[in-house]
Amino acid sequence: MGYELRVERESPLAYAELASVLSAQAGFELRGSQEAGEVLARHGDAVHRVATWSGRLAGQPGSDWHVAQLAMLSDIIGARLVGEDGEAYGIRNGIVEQINGMSSYEFGKLEEIIAAGPAEWSA
Fold this sequence. Notes:
Blueprint: E1 5-8, H1 15-23, E2 28-32, E3 37-43, E4 46-53, E5 57-59, H2 64-76, E6 80-83, E7 88-92, E8 95-100, E9 103-109, H3 110-116
Helix pairs in contact: 2-3
Protein name: DUF222 domain-containing protein
Organism: Microtetraspora fusca
């Protein structure tokens, strides 16, 4: 099991609301049921899992592309993207970043990360 990023917001997210928001949003697809589902995003001819649903939304990113997709998904549903260690991830001025206390790390420009696709991080 990899590092988990959670999509969190003040008001609980219902599956029906998630389905409604994603049906109106190009680029994401929701599959499954209220009990177990997944959010998918397309790159090229392939579809990739971005997050899983089990009453809450979370993802285990394997690339900058996955982090960027999770950050966009969080923005769409009005939520925050939070890591296991309490750090936050988001998009500011078109840059995907991680913020932990007073320090931040920039992954890069959102449009470039999305265009590059889900190339896995090397160990």
